[in-house]
Amino acid sequence: MRAKNKPAKLRIFRALFLALTLISIHTESYALPETSAVPGGLIVIPLGRNKSRPEVKFNKSRIMVVWNNKTWYAIVGIPLNMKPGHHTISIHNGKKKQTIPFIVKHKSYPTQYITLKNKRMVNPGAKDMKKIGQDRKRIKRALRNWYEKQGIDLLFNKPVSGRYSSRFGLRRFFNKQPRKPHSGLDIAAGKGSLIHAPASGKIIETGRYFFNGNTVFIDHGQGLVSMYSHLDTIKAAVGEDIRKGDVIGTVGMTGRVTGPHLHWSVSLNNTMIDPSLFLKPEDRPPRAK
After folding, report:
1. The whole model's pTM is what?
2. Structure confidence by residue, pLDDT tens digits, 55-75
3. CB distance 273 to 41 below 8 Å
4. What residues contact residue 224 under an 8 Å CB cut-off, 6+ apart?
5. Domains of the chain
6. Given phi > 0 = left and psi -120 to 50 = alpha, else beta, which region is 3?
7. Greatest C-alpha distance within the chain
8. Cα 79 from chain centre
9. Residue 1: is its pLDDT beyond 80?
């Protein structure tokens, strides 16, 4: 009799485990980031109240989906080079497929001119270019990482105290030569200032890069990855689980810099977006005049 009861007990156990898992997913709710439907911004799209989490894609990339106030939401990062106009996300929920449209608005970013004494940081040599190529592969791999996680904290702390010295999205010229737009926020701080994790996550990459200097990558889950560059020292190891507020390094001036500061980038669905969208209003850079 005991042997016959085992399958029934196993089915009951599995059903209870599934029910508890669904309850934990549907009760763990975090604040949503602010929508800014412009290039370099993000948009929060409601998906409905399905029992299971739908799978969402945009530009062939998987999209973060979170549960908030009894509704599923897609959190979509918008590339800096995306043209304004109508776009769509694709949703798969079991056998059901659909698309939801959204509109990206126009935004102009200011221009910034920077003069560097180290000419190699503007026009690298052949040996430097080999290193830069290796760096790009490592960075792309880190930003593409997908870490399955529920209960993602989307309200970040500012990682270091200091004034904002360069905004996100600036159209940059180094020694009067055009380069890619600024993909993060720069926070000026004294060399050796402690840098704290703005939210919990896992360290997925660290290293010394040609342009970025000493850098740490944190995976916060579901395609949300943050990057901390130009560090003096790295105080975190790959594979380490970290909590909000943990020290991950100190401010420095390694790589392409004009002075000590933290370059902070945030990537969502493999797209660099404005980190300030995850900050409390009082911690954001002042509005441009």
Report:
1. 0.88
2. 999 999 999 999 999 999 999
3. yes
4. 64, 152, 154, 266, 267, 268
5. 30-104 (2.60.40.1590), 128-164+184-283 (2.70.70.10)
6. alpha
7. 84
8. 12
9. no
